[in-house]
């Protein structure tokens, strides 16, 4: 579902970390341009 | 081998509404919009409101967090406690400006002359007044407006608009010593010193008996050649009169206090030192961080206090809670960054090692950020998320049944009550309560769980954390 898509990944500290989302995006054919995890507290 | 105990603990808050504008978020956002700035300044709490705020009283140890009333806590009836409560105090900001001057070894804080006289008198009457360097407070008196107008200086206000002091930059070109960075570091030093002085005075501990002071706050002092390389621990030791102490800092973002406690306990267990203090001062950059959410929901600016803590670790005295060094949990690199994996590593791996069930732990102290502060900004309820994860993992292990999950969260968890300065919220804030419960028979074991967002430094995608069990001395005897 992400084939030919460029994706910016923002993970959340208490939720899903950026690298985990990026791995899913890549496995779905997407190209990850940037990944980070943020802390919102 | 000596068994380490936490023989004393204190908590301190400094109410700093006038300094809120110097928090990282307000200092960036307020200058962009005069209307927002006016709304911000009109939404600062009074000292009386800050004292009456239930979570502050819980932080000071006057009320257990599980005994807090139903939310909302803003506007709730006060519980009758004053500024001196529990194991600490909430200091008003005029006195805190004086304390900044009292711990300022380089004379960079200038207090307005009238304010300096009044503040000096108030600090002299303070129960810890004999320990404050009032000569420095008097020497700081001068023309605050003139200093505030100097290049690179910052004006310091009382409340919304009363310019009462100013702080000079500590170097004319070093970005690590600008006035705002210096003020952050000095606020951390001052609040940590207040907490250390209190734990010493309240427990009759001779400052000269402290061998080592470990700083575990978020501020990383230094200069441009070694940003963050400094040693706030020993600076606090000196300010508190611990003349025989050396010290160091332990850095690990919000998680630092638990590793600092473990290191302090290890030093005592190894016989390297007899009495070690772990201190943490408040984080000025975090003040006012979520003000936009608060204003949007017609709340006051709730992040208007600096939180500080101090605790003493020494060899077993036969009554204080023991630090179970065989229970230390760490977040290994291979565990990754998912919250369940982190909790497995921190909360459950140590219990497995010791042959314990999750129900052998009476209280789990994890990240205890006050949800009334975080939810309006969309950051959710941090402790609730953690407790649900722990309960779900306990269910998966078969320690509890599905029907027990709610009760597990309610009785072994607690509502968040700490200011959102992560290292303070990350289990450290619960140590005074843990001591009380472990010493009065209310609990046998408390697990402290700290997590830190290592990835924020952009050196790694990793996060980190550490956990440790505190156990009642009676339990250990049994």
Give a quick summary of the entry.
Chain A contains one helix and two strands; from the N terminus they run βαβ. Chain A has one helix at 18-27, and strands spanning 6-12, 31-38.
Description:
The complex is a heterodimer of chains A (41) and B (478). With 41 residues, chain A is an alpha+beta fold. In chain A, 24% of the residues lie in helices and 37% in strands. Chain A has one helix at 18-27; strands spanning 6-12, 31-38. Chain A has a two-stranded parallel ribbon. In chain B, strand 6 (154-158) and strand 7 form a beta hairpin. In chain B, helix 5 crosses helix 9 (179-202). The model of chain B has no long low-confidence stretch (mean pLDDT 96). The longest helix of chain B has 24 residues, at 179-202. By secondary structure, chain B is of the alpha/beta class. Classes of the chains: A alpha+beta (41), B alpha/beta (478). Chain A binds chain B through residues 11, 13-20, 35-41, and chain B through 336-339, 367, 369, 374, 377-380, 382, 385-386, 420, 422, 425, 453, 455-456, 461, 463.
Determine the fraction of residues in helical runs of chain B and give it as a percent range: 25-40%
Q: What distance lies between the first and last C-alpha atoms of chain B, to the nearest angstrom?
A: 19 Å
Shape of chain A: elongated
Could you list the spans of chain A in which at least 5 consecutive residues all have pLDDT below 50? none
> What is the CA–CA distance across the termini of chain A?
32 Å
Total helical segments of chain B: 19
CATH architecture of the domain at 322-477 in chain B: 3-Layer(aba) Sandwich
- Residue windows where pLDDT falls under 50 for at least 5 positions of chain B: none
Oligomeric state as shown = heterodimer
Number of helices of chain A: 1
- Tell me, briefly, the overall form of chain B: globular
* CATH fold title of the domain at 322-477 in chain B: Peroxisomal Thiolase, Chain A, domain 1
What top-tier CATH class of the domain at 322-477 in chain B fits best?
Answer: Alpha Beta
List SSEs of chain A in N-to-C order. Answer: EHE
The count of β-strands of chain A is: 2
Radius of gyration of chain A: 10 Å
* Mean of all residue-level pLDDT scores of chain A: 91
Rounded average pLDDT of chain B: 96
Our estimate of the beta-strand percent of chain A is: 35-45%
Estimate nothing, just give the exact number of structural domains of chain A: 1
């Amino acid at each position: 579902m992400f084939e030919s898509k460029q994706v910016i990944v923002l993970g959340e500290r208490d939720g899903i970390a950026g690298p985990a989302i990026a791995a899913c995006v890549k496995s779905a054919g997407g190209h990850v341009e940037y990944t980070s995890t943020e802390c919102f507290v | 081998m000596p068994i380490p105990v936490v023989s004393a603990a204190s908590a301190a808050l400094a109410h700093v509404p006038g300094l809120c504008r110097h928090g990282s978020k307000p200092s960036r956002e307020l200058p962009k919009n005069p209307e927002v700035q006016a709304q911000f300044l009109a939404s600062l709490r009074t000292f009386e409101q800050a004292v009456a705020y239930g979570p502050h009283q819980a932080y000071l140890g006057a009320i257990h967090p599980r005994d807090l009333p139903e939310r909302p806590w803003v506007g709730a009836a006060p519980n009758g406690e004053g500024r001196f409560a529990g194991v600490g105090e909430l200091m008003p900001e005029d006195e805190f400006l004086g304390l900044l001057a009292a711990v300022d070894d380089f004379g960079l804080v200038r207090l307005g002359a009238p304010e300096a006289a009044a503040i000096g008198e108030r600090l002299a009457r303070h129960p810890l007044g004999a320990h404050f360097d009032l000569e420095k407070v008097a020497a700081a008196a001068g023309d605050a407006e003139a200093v505030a107008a100097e290049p690179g200086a910052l004006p310091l206000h009382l409340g919304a608009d009363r310019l009462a002091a100013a702080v000079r930059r500590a170097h004319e070109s070093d970005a690590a010593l600008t006035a705002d960075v210096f003020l952050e570091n000095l606020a951390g030093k001052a609040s940590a010193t207040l907490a250390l002085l209190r734990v010493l005075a309240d427990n009759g501990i001779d400052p000269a008996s402290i061998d080592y002071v470990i700083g575990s706050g978020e501020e990383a002092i230094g200069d441009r050649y070694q940003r963050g390389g400094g040693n706030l621990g020993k600076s606090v030791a000196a300010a508190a009169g611990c003349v025989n102490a050396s010290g160091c800092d332990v850095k690990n973002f919000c998680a630092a206090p638990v590793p600092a406690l473990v290191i302090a306990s290890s030093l005592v267990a190894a016989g390297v030192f007899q009495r070690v203090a772990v201190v943490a001062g408040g984080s000025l950059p975090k003040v006012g961080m979520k003000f936009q959410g608060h204003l949007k929901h017609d709340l006051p600016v709730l992040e208007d206090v600096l939180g500080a803590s101090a605790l003493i670790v020494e060899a077993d005295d036969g009554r204080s809670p023991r630090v179970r060094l065989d229970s230390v949990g760490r977040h290994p690199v291979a565990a990754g960054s998912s919250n369940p994996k982190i909790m497995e590593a921190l909360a459950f791996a140590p219990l497995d090692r010791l042959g314990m069930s999750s129900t052998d732990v009476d209280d789990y102290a994890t990240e205890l950020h006050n949800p009334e502060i975080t939810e309006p900004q969309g950051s959710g309820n941090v402790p609730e998320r953690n407790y649900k994860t722990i309960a779900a993992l306990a269910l998966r292990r078969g320690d509890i049944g599905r029907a027990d999950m709610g009760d597990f969260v309610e009785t072994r968890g607690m509502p968040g009550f700490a200011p959102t300065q992560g290292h303070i919220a990350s289990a450290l804030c619960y140590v005074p309560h843990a001591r009380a419960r472990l010493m009065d028979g209310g609990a046998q074991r408390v697990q402290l769980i700290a997590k830190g967002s290592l990835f924020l430094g952009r050196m790694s995608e990793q996060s980190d954390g550490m956990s440790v069990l505190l156990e009642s001395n009676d339990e250990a005897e049994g």
